[in-house]
Design goal:
By secondary structure, this protein is mostly helical. Helices cover 75% and strands 0% of the residues. It contains 17 helices and no strands. It has helices at residues 3-18, 22-25, 31-38, 42-67, 72-88, 96-124, 129-155, 160-166, 168-181, 194-197, 203-231, 237-261, 269-288, 294-318, 323-355, 359-376, 384-387. Helix 4 packs antiparallel against helix 15 (323-355) and helix 13 packs antiparallel against helix 16 (359-376).
Length: 408
């Protein structure tokens, strides 16, 4: 692609990223209003977060096969149409089933994006993967912040369901940019290779899946239940939404900043360790002293979640130099990882039902972080070739990515 084409694609990455989370983050601050009209208890409301995460997982797994039958541009267009339709269906909602169905459509749209973009970024921005993945993650988290902070404010003026429907408008802007300015080359036919088929059999793939699942389980839990947990302690919906916005703001800054800090060396583990430590402090604060410094706990959780999400995406792409195979590994990690993550909001709802408070949800995520800290120790880049040993003959099918001494 030309430099102009690269810039147009980068703008598209920004526009798409902004639209991937408002349909989730707008729900928590409006939970009280939603329940008042639709009579959805916590278990049902959990499905508004759980189902999209589950479908993102299923959809991302299907994306490599779809890419062999269609172009990346066509799939991104379909993804944006699904996101726009899902948000628009929330206009004047009168049914909890329709709310869950709208979340499902948005989840499928998000799945296509997250299955297509990592491999595309690896191919087009090969020397700038940490930077561009950081930008994508930061925009995704920034969009989440907008959804959390603007939705309850707008709901004070217009009906909450119409507020949810308004989030279809920025999706249409991204769709217009894709149609007007972005021209993606159609890749040569790429039949599924034995290497790609065997990725699922590698222990390293499942290690990445576990890390990705734990990170996004934490994200699903705080998006679904952070605002309701403080509203149960007497906070207003707007104040609860602002907490989610603080969390998402920290995710935005960390999602961009940590990959840039980690770009000088291929070993990303020290920075991933920092991201895990921030989450432990944040979730520990929400558990042990929720009223002591709620904004600080949200900032710590957000910084840890945003940084670890961006880093695990970069780490997955680091494992394989070929963009298509790296994209397949990323799709596999996200696909099964989002299925793991989808259990987080549901488990939190069940724990709340049993215990009567939200402390058990934060404890659950802390347990996952302990496991993740042990798994991350194994992500030594010197071992990537042996970890990705795929060939039938037993010889290493890849080479170690070239190390750069300059920031990406």
């Amino acid at each position: 692609m030309s430099k102009g084409g690269n810039r147009a694609l980068l703008v598209l990455v920004v526009l798409i990223g902004i639209n991937l989370r408002p349909f989730l983050t707008a729900i928590g601050p409006l939970a009280g209003r939603i329940d008042a009209r639709l009579a959805m208890g916590m278990d049902q409301l959990a499905w508004v977060t759980l189902l999209p995460l589950l479908l993102i997982g299923v959809g991302v797994l299907c994306t490599p096969a779809l890419l062999r039958r269609s172009s990346a541009g066509a799939l991104l267009g379909a993804a944006l149409l699904l996101l726009a339709l899902g948000s628009a269906l929330r206009f004047d909602l009168a049914s909890g089933v329709l709310l869950i169905a709208s979340a499902a459509l948005c989840g499928l749209g998000s799945a296509l994006v997250q299955g297509v973009l990592p491999g595309l970024i690896k191919g087009v921005f090969a020397q700038r993967v940490p930077l561009v993945m950081g930008i994508f993650s930061a925009c995704m988290m920034g969009g989440g912040a907008l959804g959390a902070i603007l939705s309850p404010r707008l709901a004070a003026v217009i009906d909450w369901s119409r507020v949810l429907a308004l989030w279809s408008l920025p999706v249409l802007l991204a769709l217009a940019w894709l149609a007007w300015r972005v021209r993606l080359p159609r890749p040569a036919p790429n039949p599924q290779s034995q290497t790609e088929q065997r990725l699922v059999a590698l222990p390293r793939s499942w290690l990445l899946i576990a890390c990705f699942g734990i990170i996004n389980s934490g994200y699903g839990i705080v998006v679904a239940w952070l605002a309701p947990s403080y509203m149960a302690q007497g906070w207003s919906a707007q104040a609860g939404g602002e907490l989610v916005a603080w969390l998402a703001l920290a995710q935005t800054l960390s999602g961009l900043g940590l990959p840039l800090l980690a770009a000088r060396k291929l070993d990303r583990r020290p920075w991933m360790g920092l991201a895990i430590a921030l989450q432990v402090l944040g979730f520990g604060g929400l558990w042990l002293a929720p009223q002591a410094a709620p904004i600080l706990w949200c900032l710590l959780c957000g910084a840890g979640l945003g940084g670890s999400f961006s880093l695990i995406m970069v780490i997955a792409l680091d494992h394989l130099p070929d963009p298509r195979r790296a994209g397949s590994l990323s799709a596999l990690m996200q696909g099964f990882g989002f299925m793991v993550a989808a259990t987080g909001p549901w488990v939190a709802a069940r724990l709340h039902h049993l215990s009567g408070d939200f402390a058990s949800a934060w404890q659950w995520q802390l347990g996952g972080l302990v496991l993740m800290s042990l798994l991350v120790l194994r992500l030594n880049p010197l071992h990537y070739p042996s970890a990705m040993r795929l060939s039938v003959t037993g010889k290493t099918a890849i080479s170690l990515p070239t190390q750069s001494n300059t920031p990406a």
